[in-house]
Amino acid sequence: MSMIHTAAATRGRAHTASAISVSDVSHTYGARTAGGMLALDGINLEIGDGEFHCLLGPSGCGKSTLLYLIGGFIPVQAGVISTSAGPVTAPGPDRSIVFQNFALFPWKTVKDNVLYGLKKAGFAAAEREQRAQRYIDMVHLTGFENAYPSQLSGGMQQRAAIARTLAVDPGILLMDEPFGALDAQTRRVMQEELRTIWRDSRKTVVFVTHDVQEAVFLADRISIMSARPGRIQHVIDVDLPKDRGEEILENRAFIGLSEHIWRLVREQAVAATRGAH
Amino acid sequence: MSDVLAGKPDLRRRGPSLSYAVVNTALRFSPLLLLALGWEFLGLSGLVSQQMLPGLGEIFSAFSAMLFGGDLLYNTARSISRAATGLGAAIVIGVAAGLLMASFRTVRLLINPIVQIFYPMPKSALIPVVMIWLGLGDSSKILLIFLGCLLPVVVGTYNGARGVNPFLLWSASSLGASRFEVLREVVLRAAMPDILNGCRTALAFSFILMVSSEFVIATDGVGFMISSLGDGGQYPAMFAAIFFVAGIGFAADRLYAMLSRRLLRWREA
């Protein structure tokens, strides 16, 4: 397993500055009541500028909670989360998000959905139109500008949501199992597409998933989280070529790394089911 | 990507053909025709006195007399202006109250018990009260209609606003919307189906309260007209006025349903 590096072994990677810094963050649901549930316990994580980072773990490990904290959607209870813009206290267009259930505005057409964030960002009308069209073209929804979300397939809705999020040009792109609701073929296409978009835009991406293969295919680094309470158990560098297509699935390094990570995740999943008894 | 893009949806859905629509509508209203035939039969057979159920022809000639010579249109306009004022105020204030209730715990705690106590109370019970407060003028009827229409709008808005998918709110705020913008551009829009349902109930209430309040406290309006024609024994004219109000109520409801469908076109796709 020589191709597997732990974070400690590869400190010298190209991630120059931290885009996101999470230090000593814990989170308890229902903290004000007696039966509060500790969801995250002492999370420390540095995500580099331009890095594609996956949070991987069994369901209920708090990976979405961590993402929502970074997004500013739920208030930080303990510890500090900061970006280059300072500590995170509220949602903002510098950290835009794509959800598993798309969360497109159902009363707006594809184009109006994409335009929404652009209006908030204060672009002039002509530039808004231009940008919206560019991102709609980028996610291959040309011709569907005036369709309502309910008229589109799941994959198309998710591409519209990605266009809406990318159009505001967030420095940080948060993705909460964005392909979880899609069928296998569409998911594969979308993964390749996202890799390409990321490679071209060099955004920092935090991507939540429970799918090992997806994480290895997409990420530069993977944080493997433990079952409840969520802790970061391992941080693993994915030392695979930048250009990843279908063929990488046959790559021995890819297969070896996937198997290694699968075993690590499995330990956590088994621990979770034992813990439930 | 081509496999997922296969087949554009037809965005211009076409309805059924015109002749089909005509036949369909005729069939849907055939029970009304049966009712009219039964009405005529009861009157002609002598089972019920002609006084109580005047023939439809008689009612129709009373109607055209009132429409062209009489004050039917004037009274209708008076009534509808009251109903529209009361209903309009109820919609504006009710939607605002419902949104505030859904957004702020204190407002919810303050308003919720009041809504729960007053919701089941028949608002026509307030007729004597508003008459004492505001006298016989327009304002007493407008207040009554307003009070009757308010709660269905508040409850519809509140339920709709509480049920909004939280991910939509998060999406909007992560795209840069302020709290107020989230409320106006997301919560209000997402709650629209429930708001429109509440308003439809309110529309029906406004007609009921408009007529019943005019029975008691008015010197004009269709309710006043119906009761004074009845008192004067002019039954064909009374029935004509009743049918006319019923027709206007029906038309208002159909118009409202059409408007709702337009506003909620995004849901039909």
UniProtKB/TrEMBL annotation, chain A:
<feature type="domain" description="ABC transporter">
    <location>
        <begin position="20"/>
        <end position="252"/>
    </location>
</feature>
<dbReference type="GO" id="GO:0005524">
    <property type="term" value="F:ATP binding"/>
</dbReference>
<dbReference type="GO" id="GO:0016887">
    <property type="term" value="F:ATP hydrolysis activity"/>
</dbReference>
<dbReference type="InterPro" id="IPR017871">
    <property type="entry name" value="ABC_transporter-like_CS"/>
</dbReference>
<protein>
    <submittedName>
        <fullName>ABC transporter ATP-binding protein</fullName>
    </submittedName>
</protein>
<dbReference type="InterPro" id="IPR003593">
    <property type="entry name" value="AAA+_ATPase"/>
</dbReference>
<keyword id="KW-0547">Nucleotide-binding</keyword>
<dbReference type="InterPro" id="IPR003439">
    <property type="entry name" value="ABC_transporter-like_ATP-bd"/>
</dbReference>
<dbReference type="InterPro" id="IPR027417">
    <property type="entry name" value="P-loop_NTPase"/>
</dbReference>
<comment type="similarity">
    <text>Belongs to the ABC transporter superfamily.</text>
</comment>
<keyword id="KW-0813">Transport</keyword>
<dbReference type="Pfam" id="PF00005">
    <property type="entry name" value="ABC_tran"/>
</dbReference>
<keyword id="KW-0067">ATP-binding</keyword>
<dbReference type="InterPro" id="IPR050166">
    <property type="entry name" value="ABC_transporter_ATP-bind"/>
</dbReference>
TrEMBL record, chain B:
<feature type="transmembrane region" description="Helical">
    <location>
        <begin position="18"/>
        <end position="39"/>
    </location>
</feature>
<dbReference type="InterPro" id="IPR000515">
    <property type="entry name" value="MetI-like"/>
</dbReference>
<feature type="transmembrane region" description="Helical">
    <location>
        <begin position="84"/>
        <end position="105"/>
    </location>
</feature>
<keyword id="KW-1003">Cell membrane</keyword>
<feature type="transmembrane region" description="Helical">
    <location>
        <begin position="59"/>
        <end position="77"/>
    </location>
</feature>
<keyword id="KW-0812">Transmembrane</keyword>
<feature type="domain" description="ABC transmembrane type-1">
    <location>
        <begin position="76"/>
        <end position="256"/>
    </location>
</feature>
<dbReference type="GO" id="GO:0005886">
    <property type="term" value="C:plasma membrane"/>
</dbReference>
<keyword id="KW-1133">Transmembrane helix</keyword>
<keyword id="KW-0813">Transport</keyword>
<comment type="similarity">
    <text>Belongs to the binding-protein-dependent transport system permease family.</text>
</comment>
<dbReference type="Pfam" id="PF00528">
    <property type="entry name" value="BPD_transp_1"/>
</dbReference>
<dbReference type="InterPro" id="IPR035906">
    <property type="entry name" value="MetI-like_sf"/>
</dbReference>
<protein>
    <submittedName>
        <fullName>ABC transporter permease</fullName>
    </submittedName>
</protein>
<feature type="transmembrane region" description="Helical">
    <location>
        <begin position="195"/>
        <end position="217"/>
    </location>
</feature>
<dbReference type="GO" id="GO:0055085">
    <property type="term" value="P:transmembrane transport"/>
</dbReference>
<keyword id="KW-0472">Membrane</keyword>
<feature type="transmembrane region" description="Helical">
    <location>
        <begin position="237"/>
        <end position="257"/>
    </location>
</feature>
